[in-house]
Amino acid sequence: MRQNTIQRSSIATLFLGTILATTSCQNQTNTKSATIDINSRALRSQTKPQYYAISSSATLVTLVRHAEQHHPATLAAQAKIQRLLAKVPQVKALPDPKARIAAGSLAETAAGRTSTIIGIEQSIPYPGKRSARAAAAQKEAQAASAELDNIRLRIAEQVRFAYWDYYYASQSITIQRSNKQILKNIQDVIQTKVEANQANQSDILRISTQIAQTDKQIIIAKQKVVEAKSKLNSLLNRPVGSSLPAPHRGNIASNKSLSRLLTRAENIHPSIRANQSKVAAFQQRLKLAHLNKLPDFTIGAQYAPVSSSGLSPVANGRDQAMLTLGFTIPLWQEPRKAKIREANAGIAQMNAQLNLSRTELQQRIKDAHFQIKSTQSIIQLYQQRLIPDAKHALELDLDSYAAGKISYVSLLDTWRTLLTLQLQQQANYAQLGKASASLKSSANLN
User: Fold this and answer.
1) Domain stops at, among 108, 124, 140
2) Which helix (H) or strand (E) holds 102?
3) How far, CA to CA in Å, does 121 sit from each of 87, 103, 113, 388?
4) Do the domain assignments include residue 318?
5) Where does residue 323 rank: exposed (0-12), middle (13-18), buried (19+ CB within 10 A)?
6) Is the pTM of this model over 0.85?
7) Least confident among 77-81, 178-182, 196-200
8) What is the band of 305 on the pLDDT scale with cuts at 50, 70, 90?
9) Res 110 pLDDT > 70
């Protein structure tokens, strides 16, 4: 009988040891697999600039969509969301159970000798703790999702800014070339007057110098085009020398009222939603901090095989089985009070950040909205009065110079006025486009 008891103890010990070893191996295998998977994903998520074709007819909207899809900041934010979502099941799960085994010269009972005790325990947090942890993690993931939307808005704004720099540089080349042709026409008039002894040879040298200055401005504008294209390709996560479609000016007016724009931003702007989710996450942490004042529980079961060949004459060899119940004693309250203070401070911090975001958005929307209105009025003034008048004045002065009524200096001043107005008008269009980009970003418009 004693030998049978020893065999039962040995079998039980071997069984428990096998379970523990198998579990350990499985954990190691899972950990190794998880490490390989994480490393593979990390390799896949590396974002080097990659060339991808963009149609020659692609619009600014198309470029914005490409940037939102390929920009490294977007990919990093997406990975952050996945990381935070993966925390939810972790903090919601029960702790792993604990297995215990005791072997050796244990106390002998009236029922017989015990040489092995096998037990298992499961910790159970106080009700509400796991759900509070999961809710806080979920809110953090929601905040990261809103931050992703905000990153996309900022990237779109940067793309639009670079696009309008590209547009202005391209238009500058066109305007400078057109005015170079005007200078050549003036040069022909001067050459005719010189041949007729009605103008000085120095006028020929002056107009040649001015044409050379125009060539210089064309070179500078070309360099600006290269810089703007490099900036755009960088935002698109493409090699900086990749080809891009020629920029075009579209309809960029906003018909929404200022009050509607402010209301829209207040309700759905990603920066507002992100801060609201962060406030909610700290509120769940505060709830958890209060729950941590309460004890957690531990339930368990133990089994002990008993030998019937004990010293007691009444030993019956009946095996022992029992259930256990335990709980933690939340004795040290200062750390728990600190957790409560931390959560309250986090709530105050995020509420202040939320108010700051609202104020900044209101300011940006108002500034962009009024800038659009004023720039539209300026563009209309240039288009309807200033540029037509300057063109007409140049035509009259060119005829007057040919007739010998005005000097070459007066003619050149009139030409410079037209050139300046034409360049400024294109700068106005670029400024309007950038103001519209700021409005789209701050009011969460497409």
Assistant:
1) 124
2) strand 98-103
3) 25, 18, 24, 90
4) no
5) exposed
6) no
7) 196-200
8) confident
9) no
Contacts of 59 (CB under 8 A, 6+ apart): 248, 250
Helix (H) or strand (E) holding 267: helix 258-268
CA angle 266-269-274, nearest 5°? 105
List the domain range (segments joined by +) for residue 397.
58-93+127-300+332-443
- Enter the tokens of residue 331: 């004795």
pLDDT at 21 over 90: no
Picking from 231, 54, 77, 242, the residue whose alpha carbon sits closest to that of residue 152 is 77
Structure tokens belonging to residue 336: 């728990």
What DSSP line would sit under 165-184, residue for residue?
Answer: HHHHHHHHHHHHHHHHHHHH
Instruction: Give the type of residue at 48.
Output: K
Query: What's the length of the chain?
Result: 446
Q: Which residue has the tokens 């390989």?
A: 36
49 neighbors 236 (Cβ within 8 angstroms): no
Question: What is the strand order of the sheet 320-327 is part of?
Answer: 98-103, 116-124, 297-304, 320-327
* Paired tokens of 20: 């523990």
